Amino acid sequence: MSETTVTLVGNVATNVEYRETPTGGVARFRFAVPVRRWDRERAVWTDGPTSFYTVSAWRSLGVNLAASVSVGEPLVVQGRLKVREEELDGRRKTFVDVVATAAGHDLSRGTAAFRRAARQNPELQPPDGNAPDPWQTPPSAPDAANSGLVTAS
Predict the structure, then answer these.
(1) Range among 53-57, 109-113, 131-135, 136-140 rated most confident
(2) What is the DSSP letter of 122?
(3) How confident is the model over 126-137, as pLDDT tens digits?
(4) Higher per-residue confidence, 31 vs 147
(5) Can you tell me whether residue 26 is helix, strand or coil?
(6) What is the mean pLDDT of residues 82-110?
(7) Cα distance from N-terminal residue to C-terminal residue, the chain
(8) Cβ atoms within 10 A of the Cβ of 55, count?
(9) pLDDT at 43 over 60
C-alpha cells in the first residue's frame, strides 16, 4: 500500500520537543500552514484559515531539527501524512500528523548557514546499543582561562 507524501510550507508553532525512545530519538512540534489567496475583486492578498499539523522526525533528522529550529521560523517540511481519529470528551476528533523525511528553512523568507552534523559510524557502536551521548561535550585540556571546566554554549 502506498503512503501519501506531502510537502508543507509554513511556520513552527511550538517549541521542538526532543526525546529518546527505545527505537531512537524523536523530535515533535506543531506546524502552522497559513492560506493566502489573491482577492481579484479587491486586488489584495487575504488570509484564509490556518491548518495545524503535528510533525515528528526520527533519529538524525529529529536531532538536527531540535538543534536548528525555533518557534516562528519558516520551514519546508516533507513527509508521510498520517490521519488518526481519537475519542476525547465523548467526541470523535480527527488529527493530521506528518512523519517528516526532510525539513529545512524556507530560504524565500530569509537566510541560513548550513553546518554539517558529525556522523556516528554505526560499526563503532557497542553491540549492546549503549551509544555515546551525542550531546556530551568532549573534555578539553584545562587552561588558566577556564580552570578545567568545560561549558556548553
Answers:
(1) 53-57
(2) G
(3) 444 454 444 444
(4) 31
(5) strand
(6) 93
(7) 46
(8) 24
(9) yes
Rg (CA), the chain: 20
* Cross-strand pairs, 83: 96
pTM above 0.85, yes or no: no
DSSP lists the bridge partners of residue 20 as 25
Distance of CA 57 to the CA centre of its chain: 6
Alpha-carbon distance of 52 to 142, in angstroms, equals 49
User: Phi and psi dihedrals of 57, rounded to 5?
Assistant: -135, 130
Burial of 31 (0-12, 13-18, 19+ CB in 10 A): buried
CA distances from 19 to 9, 59, 67 (A): 25, 10, 13
